[in-house]
């Protein structure tokens, strides 16, 4: 039975350990705002350990740089693996729920649920000191997979929700996921209003709660810029902008985009991180923790939604690796001369550049997330005007030929439209009815 002095010594040791951990964490956070390379490394860690708190991410990164996946001693044991002899674990904060307690007349602390009838009366009268239930933290230890007997190739089995880094090639599917993020935020992505923001690749307009993307962007640029602008929407809505500076807002949006992209293996070559750290050099430690904490919370929300949407896409067979061989992709660069009808066949996939070219030549009468129909009739069928039409299927734009107004935009799954006749364009130079020669879609080089 330890005596009072030994108990007091143990308590002091524990307090010292906690204080050392706090100091270590604070020093790590401070260093991220001085050294851009350390900031980048920390954000990369956050992308891997997004379900850990920012404080624990900082502690793991500082104690074991290069960690891939961590678990407690019992976790690894439960998976039939052991921690290698001589390995020292990484200390992290472990949240614990402290029950409501009261102090008895003898000075002992007891859970309120264990109070006697007499003590309950005293508690109601307020004559006994008590504390409410609350969350506290203790110190726990975790070990990286490299410190155990578990082979690295077992990661997907042990951590089924952990994303294995790899290039995302289907940026239409990625964009679909980001649009779900926008929907969750109540943000509109405006692709029809004339763009008046010069060379900027995108902009978030807080008063309107909408995002506009530069129509000159490539698919890759849209896929990455949208993440940045959505970060602004999540972190800096109209009612919160007065509480932050322009530099802080850009710092947080860039960090959020970096974490999300790093998690999914998208290399954006984000050189801005090399100067963003200097933007907050005069901030207090509390401010720095707040900035990083908000980035972590937003990144976690985005990653969770995107993982869900990408998984759905894979289940539905929308993965680009499964789609590339099914339909040809027609591009603007390949269309060298002649009429569009000689170049496109109904069912062809169309790249963004070709679609934007047609939108420029014929400002669309309908242009939304599901369908684009050119603004002037191409011809007539059964006494009705038909329009050059493109519809979104499985995250890609598909040429539908000359269709009636409103086709392909009423169904949830465009690839399953029933009862909607589709007509191929006649084999003649594409000069829609009523158009001048200057707007003809016959192309020459």
TrEMBL record:
Q: Which residues cross the membrane?
A: none
Question: Could you state a single Gene Ontology molecular function term?
Answer: single-stranded DNA binding
| Region Disordered, annotated ranges | 412-445
Q: Which InterPro entries match?
A: ArdC_N, IrrE_HExxH
> Residues in domain IrrE N-terminal-like?
209-258
- Span of domain N-terminal: 21-117
Could you tell me where the Polar residues compositional bias lies?
435-445
What name has this protein been given in UniProt?
A: ImmA/IrrE family metallo-endopeptidase
